[in-house]
Write the structure tokens for this entry.
Amino acid sequence: MMEGRQLASVLLWAEAGRKTIKRRLCLRKRILSVVAFGIVTTLGLALAGHVWIASDDADRLRFASVADDAMARTTAPLQMHLSLLHATNAFLVVEGPQVEQEKFSRFLDKVDLTERFDGIQGVGFARTVPAQDDAAARASLRTNYGEAVDSWPATEQTLRTPIVLLEPQDERNRAALGYDMFSDAVRREAMQRAARTGEASASAPVSLVQEIDENPQVGFLIYLPFFSDPSRVAGAVSETEGFVYAPFRLGDLFAAALMQSPRLPVRVEAFDGEIAPASRIFTSSGDAAAARNDEFVVVRTLEVAGRNWIFRMTPTAEFRKVGSILPAIVLALAGLLLAVLLALLTSVQARRSEAVAALNVESQRNLAQKDLILSEMNHRIKNSIARVLAIARQTARGAEGLDDFLESYSARLGAMAAAQEMLTRSQWKRARIGDLLAAELRQVFGDRLEACDIAGPDIEVDETKAQALGLTFHELATNALKHGGLATMNGSLSVRWALVGGEVTIDWCEFGLAESPKLAPRSGFGTRLIDMNVTGELGGSITRRPGANRISIRIAFQWSDDAFRKPLTMG
């Protein structure tokens, strides 16, 4: 009996252990997958972020290089223009300030002014004369251009610097002949600085007198003081013989510099002296979004003939199209993919571990079931022997002789064998409660079945419940034959079952006991096996109520089948 109790405990422990391990492994699998995914994703995103930052720094350096290229494109033409002014100054030193317009024009044609010097409006010479005596200037204009042009506009200055030579001659430059540049304060300041330093000097932004069409541009001029004596390099404006100068249209100058092929992905804003709306001298074309983009801003200062130009440069949309953020995006996607793969591999490995653990628990459970089956077989054999002996005793009591005994005895043993064969063929896959009960009662009681009264609806149960009920009926019937109501010739048995509200109840009542049963239930293997089947396999409950020379047992469990039910009576 102690062995049966231990085996039953092992079975219950194994089943509980299997469920616990399964739950723990499932939880561990989820945790490991989430942890693996989180770690790899974090590392991948961190590395992608690092690459992103590095890419951002690389973009800053790349844009700084683009900005430097834009500055170089602007600086180179200005240097060439200054060189042209010095060359023109040297030409006038050689030929004299009274040089004929034809020679002056031929000189500029030789240097290929219109083709090689983009952005410049022309090259000219303004003669320094007293304000009250500009006859020489008028004579030069009449000689060179065949027009009698007075110096203009009116001025309060004591000196005039009218333009007497300006090439190439076109409609714009013809409109500037005779203009007294010293009369304008902005031009005057640049000329005074040039005379004082002896170097080329640029004016602040002005409106050129050449702007006679519908699309005027802001311009500026560069002046180089002229002295017939090369040894004189500086002095006052009154000491100069004139100024070699060049007018520039800022829009044309910057367009010629920045629109070269290949186009630079940069938006340029140029300011004279300081970054302020009033000081803006040029703004290149570009999308509005780029104008508001302050992420990459490069500021450069360029010294142009004594004046500081400040350039504020921002990237255009074309710069972003060839940006270096693609490696960071690819790395982030690769990190996420790796995290997913690692999480899946972790999940697969966890499932394998779960399968191994479940197999181990199942092996222990199978071993315990094997031992239980062996113990049950031993118990059944003993019960069968006890039933055979009981049948022999009962048959002998009512036998009239040896032949009568042999005939009755053989019939009862044959009924037992037939019932056992029927149960074996059914394999307990699906059975009706009435059939299970009748088969066991026939097997145990033989021709004493008339002492049994069973009745109930036709209820089918599945394999697990059939096995549990068959074993339970067998143990109850065996106990009734050995110790209960059918242990005496006057005893009887009543079994009723019913289905109410999804619950099956079986009432087992034995009458005519030789003595009143004790209040405490028996603690043998059969009793424990009954309890284990009812509570474990059926998931139900069992209640024993002893009375005067009788005992009532109620078994109750849940039923969820929709099988056909019909009344069954047997008496």
Notes: The chain has four domains: 2-76+325-359, 96-256, 266-321, 399-570. The first helix runs from residue 2 to 95. The CA atoms of residues 62 and 323 lie 9 Å apart.
